[in-house]
Amino acid sequence: MKMPAPDEAVLSRRMQIVADLRRIVPGEGVIDAEEERRAYECDALSAYRQLPMVVVLPSTTAQVAAVLRYCHENRVRVVPRGAGTSLSGGALPLADGVLLGMGKFNRILDVDVANRCVVAQPGVTNLGITNAVQHLGYYYAPDPSSQIACTIGGNVAENSGGVHCLKYGLTTNNVLGVEFVTMEGEVLRLGGKHLDAGGYDMLGIVVGSEGLLGVVTEVTVRILRKPETARAVLIGFPSSEAGGECVAAVIGAGIIPGGMEMMDRPAIHAAEAFAKAGYPLDVEALLIVELDGPAGEVDELIQAVEGIARQHGATHVRISASEEERLLFWAGRKSAFPAIGRISPDYLCMDGTIPRGRLSEVLRRITQLSAEHRLRVANVFHAGDGNLHPLIMFDANDPDELTRAEAFGADILRTCVEVGGVLTGEHGVGIEKRDLMDTMFDDTDLALQLRLKCAFDAEGLLNPGKVFPVLHRCAELGRVIVRGGKLRFADLPRF
Amino acid sequence: METIRPASVADLAAAIASAQGAGTTLALTGGGSKRALGRPVDAAATLDLSAFSGIVDYQPSELVLTARAATPMAEIADALAGAHQILAFEPPDLGRLYGRKPGGGTLGGALAANLAGPRRVKSGAARDHFLGFSGVSGRGEIFKGGAKVVKNVTGYDLPKLMAGSFGTLAAFDTVTVKVMPAPAEVLTILIGGNDAHAAIRHLAWALNSPCEVSGAAYLPAELTCHSSVHLVRGCGTGVAAIRLEGTANSVAARARALATDSSLWRYELPSELSRTLWAEIRDVVDILPYPASAVWRVSVPPTAGPDVVDAARAAAASAQDVAAYYDWGGGLVWLATAPGGDSGAAAIRAAVARCGGHATLVRAPDAVRALVPVFEPLAGPLAALAARVKAAFDPARILNRGRMVAEPGP
């Protein structure tokens, strides 16, 4: 993975930079010792590691602003980091960069039930927000699988999803406001406890910007009342085609389930061996459909789903009879990643989204690619919103296997784009899919996005090397092609 | 004024590139229904996008619809109705508010204005349903943003930025939106009362219940008389309206769960009357039928809604000069004010500044909108950032110059 070449001038000033940063963030907030910096060398995409030049752990917005202002003035690159759970390498450090850890921003600032929102510092975990309001009967809807560890600031950076996005949206649909510090050290407020923006929706662009536009220092999120009830139905099919058709039929019937997850045979077997969830082992596809909401409605819809499943050839249908059973259905799915980890030394988790109607075709292609690359794969799928997570099994100790696994993953993502889908549904581009961006976007599309980056960070100092294959200098992007003072294409209809 | 009507995206790109080269400012228009929303645009030519019309791809089971941007909303609504689906953000038809015919809006216009109706509290605004687009930047470049699937985080979320940019960043060719199943039944609980603060507490009680409320509005007594729904018109007090949508059994069960103190005036409106009432609340003009007044749309924390109205009344020559109602549980305030002077801008914006939010002068005479900022004025660094974002897409500032903020000439 090619990262921006370290700036020798910055590296040669390292001691001075560390000393200057200590004046901004005193005490243990600046980490210089190599063995301590080592803890920050990678995120959850652990195949890539890089020791940061220095780690800074600020605890106030003023410190964040001062650190960024200093780095801007001294042309020092900065990589922001939450809990380091990114699966796409979004928090991979730079050899000549400051790693800005936001872990000390860990307080809930305001629980405002009347306005249905919570104001939190960015280092609060995703689950920490729900924990702060669940005694009142509320929760925060987006639930990435890493929710016990991942932070709300990281969720904002990555626009994280989860199994409930189809009904409740991603992070972007649940964030009302942020306090945000630009690379120049300016503190901005975008949004608040109200809805939508009065001008350009800067909040909408900051969410999911993968730490390239600024550093979030406070987040206001919408909270929801916990649904009255939730029940799940476990449905087995003799083919993935039948499972895919059932998913389309459920949605076609006007039902938006709280969650709708699909697993293929290898994933079912791995999960069952790991979690003993009671999954049928004689099926090719397993669907978990969860309905949540008012009790009467859930009962009605779950019967409708059962009917649709049987019409589509389901060989196995089980409706959860208790909360314990519902959680057991999920236990298998939620342990799919560690379950794969038990049967393979390493795995890569891909994250493409496809139009749901192309599912069977894409699964067939993945099976072919598995044979071509000589690597096993298991598929778990947020079927409701078309978000596919193929888990490619390999052994990282074998360099050839790692190379093949990455090539296999890239082929899967290219397939997703070919059928009308995208490279990433919820994990972010980071470094992992950076070099595939041109399969989805042409040079003009990317230039527009880079110009937007320049509007926030003209020097390209924030998280460079992520998302975009090549960072052009802003001045090059800014050139305006003047085509003479006359209107061209005089044959256009004008009236 | 010259009108340019490109027939293809290549023509569109050529027209914008030429205009950029010549420094010719362009006023973008699709259906023209919201031309009076925003500051008056002083452009050298009109860029008529009406040829970019028609549904390109609609697969109900994918919950996605792709259409050319100037496709009339009526055509979109018809196609969706055929598959029992809707645009869940419930875009208002603002045509009659501007003294035009209804039904003149386009899908691209609804997205460019980031419209949202009463269902905003449950389902989001246009921004939350805008998945992708292709279009032409102010440089004349054909480009795209987002995608055609419901879940995507690849690159910056450009559709969010385009939503609410009022044609100042790019001209759309095609747009892709998320669609949702249409609810089978609608029921509205009406609760009588004359205290706005108490009504908003009632709305919060309903929104904070597990009953999946999809609309929460309060009409004060002086405005209920304008509704065509007789129960509302004849009630003689203010009315809090709580909407429930879903299957018949579910709606009925939730209405029972939202039982109220038996001393309160309470009625339940069935589906058809509910649809009429919420369309009136959504489209504004039926509830605020004052063609001469200025109209404000104010988004604030729900509990702060009444404070904005109090502030506007306190500043008005007479309290009767201000009429207001609340949607989004109190978080959206529609105000009619006297159209003279600043139309109440100073008082309303000061109240908004105290609680956080934004106020948009949705309707006022051209002369007022040229002087009073139509959109919430931005502070220093944020204003500078917005200008840099504009320049990233349209460096020569030829697209809808001055529509959102006052801009000096070239």
Q: Can you walk through the features of this model?
A:
The complex is a heterodimer of chains A (495) and B (410). Chain A is an alpha+beta fold and 495 residues long. Chain A contains 18 helices and 18 strands. Chain A has helices at 8-12, 14-24, 34-37, 61-73, 126-133, 152-158, 165-168, 202-206, 240-252, 265-275, 295-311, 323-334, 336-343, 359-373, 399-418, 437-440, 443-456, 474-478, and strands spanning 30-31, 54-56, 77-81, 97-101, 108-112, 117-120, 138-139, 175-181, 187-191, 215-222, 224-225, 229-237, 259-264, 285-293, 316-319, 346-349, 377-382, 387-394. In chain A, 57% of the residues are buried. Chain B folds into 3 domains: 1-182 and 377-410, Uridine Diphospho-n-acetylenolpyruvylglucosamine Reductase, domain 3, CATH 3.30.465; 185-273, Alpha-Beta Plaits; 294-371, Alpha-Beta Plaits, CATH 3.30.70. Helix content of chain B is 30%, strand content 24%. In chain B, β4 (55-59) and β5 (64-68) form a beta hairpin. Chain B is an alpha+beta fold and 410 residues long. In chain B, α11 packs antiparallel against α12.
Secondary-structure blueprint:
The complex is a heterodimer of chains A (495) and B (410).
Chain A (H helix, E strand, L loop, with lengths): L7 H5 L1 H11 L5 E2 L2 H4 L16 E3 L4 H13 L3 E5 L15 E5 L6 E5 L4 E4 L5 H8 L4 E2 L12 H7 L6 H4 L6 E7 L5 E5 L10 H5 L8 E8 L1 E2 L3 E9 L2 H13 L6 E6 H11 L9 E9 L1 H17 L4 E4 L3 H12 L1 H8 L2 E4 L9 H15 L3 E6 L4 E8 L4 H20 L18 H4 L2 H14 L17 H5 L17
Parallel strand pairs in A: 2-4, 3-4
Antiparallel strand pairs in A: 1-2, 5-6, 6-10, 7-11, 8-9, 8-10, 12-14, 12-15, 13-14, 13-17, 16-18, 17-18
Chain B lengths: L1 E3 L4 H14 L3 E4 L15 E4 L6 E5 L4 E5 L4 H10 L2 E2 L20 H6 L7 H4 L6 E8 L4 E5 L11 H5 L7 E9 L1 E2 L3 E8 L3 H12 L5 E7 L1 H4 L5 H4 L5 E8 L1 H10 L8 E4 L1 H13 L10 E6 L5 H11 L7 E5 L4 E6 L7 H11 L2 E6 L2 H6 L8 H14 L17
Helix pairs in contact in B: 11-12
